[in-house]
Amino acid sequence: MKRSRILIIGGTGVFGKRLAHHLMTFEDIELFITSRSAVKAERFAKVLRMGNGATPVHGVALDCRENLDARLDDIRPFAVIDCSGPFQHADFEVARSVVASGSHLIDLADARSYLAGFVESLEGLARAKGVAALTGASSTPTLSACVVDHLARDWQRLDTIDICIAPGGQSEVGRSVIEAILSYAGKDTPIWQDGQLSKTSGWSEPRVVDIAGLGRRRVAAVETYDAEYLGPRHKVQSRVSFSAGLESTIEQRGIETLAALRKWHLLPDPGFLIPVLLKARQVTRLPTSDRGGMQVSVCGLDAKGAFTQANWTLVAKDDHGPNVPILPAAAALKKLLAGEGAVGARLAHDALTLPDILVETGSYAIKTKTDVMSRDHGLFEAHLGTDRFRKLPQALQYFHGQTAPPIWSGEADIDAGGWFLPKLAAWVFGFPKAGRNVPVSVCIDRKLSRRRCLVEHWTRSFDGKILSSRLARQKEGRLTEAFWPFTFVLPVQASTDRIKMPVASWTIGRMPLPKVLAPRSETSEFQDCEGRFCFDVRLSLPVIGLLAHYRGWLRPKGNSAVGINDAQNKLLISG
Question: Tens digit of pLDDT for each residue in 426-439?
Fold first, then answer.
């Protein structure tokens, strides 16, 4: 039987080696390992032949800038898999040469600009040659997108998608990986925020995530194509985030520092530091482990319309984490070998499902887990009870209901304290400045804790001035709102026309503070004659006086109608 020839560009690199080892388990293939150095390519080919003599393996000298076309004419591969990287500054010349030769193409690209232009550049040629050209066959965007499809199949609405990757610190890191990281550190990076494309800074916004089976890791925003791809594809109402974290604290903090220096124009392109960083890893990796992982979390309304959070976790042990990025490429090749690949250029995600990829994990110390949690009631309904909650005005039921949209917008009038101390206190708490008809947006990020308790993170923007807090219902039945580092207990008072939320007590961390010094809160929510959700919040301190007084209205973002009664009625009836 004739064997299918598979050529791996970058076959002696970090991912090329792992993919080559993986493909040695495939039947009826002939493998061509390439490197700029013929000696290096043949040396690795010999290692592969010693491990499995049944599969023919050849080491080939290849420089894509000089002799790619000649090598393709000589070998005539069935498929070419490009593991070379980094793709951040790559054009499509290699891809076009491969497709023009009549070979199928699979690459492990994760660079945003490359992925965004791939289909347009290759589609016509791939169809004319009758081959498949698949890009992004790696952890991002293919594996991440397949996980989201799997978790949110048939869902009515997606509010948030949060993805993070936390590799083990002992894993080998090549020059191309460091080069890719530094290429966007401190530079504008696309994100999906408030239901639209926005931007942040690469390796900024650090946070700590708790990955089941892996523990707590510090991660920061990284550049991927997921925001631009998954946001519109799934009509995500609020956020698509992609973060990554290095297990070594020194490495993680170091990259964040370089990113901050570059952002503030205090450091030019940090690429000149790559040799130093590679050598430094010999020391910085010493206290790390061989365990890494990936987590994908989606929140929204499931097929039945209930608020649901689905978490998918992958944990890799024994330094098997670096095998994860090559699994989608292996799965894609298996489909092409089986004659299942469609002609044309597209993201590999469109050719694969999550089960297709997970089949390839069989020989590795890689485990995945899916946890799905749902809630029939929102935070306020759980706190007040269904009977009391349903006596509230419709606008309040809609705003606080578990099916409510996450993004709201409107206007507010703001008054502030007039002398030094209230201004200082307002600055400490982050309250907005005085103004009239100030544009307001509110993002309510609903999450379920491991105890399956609903938590709401509120991000209020008063014409760009951000005020954030966290609402939660404690196990003793108290509703609390935290403005770090302070937490306030709010005894919610509900009537048929409004909600009031005075402050009963407060703490800093877990330490109670004197009630006599607690802020005075005159907070009420109600519905106006136009059916809009309205708020009136007056905050003051003993002796000091008024801190802030803001009142206004909100409606779901994108709702052009003056009122929201139609939407309220639809949701209330369906609920």
Answer: 777 778 888 999 99
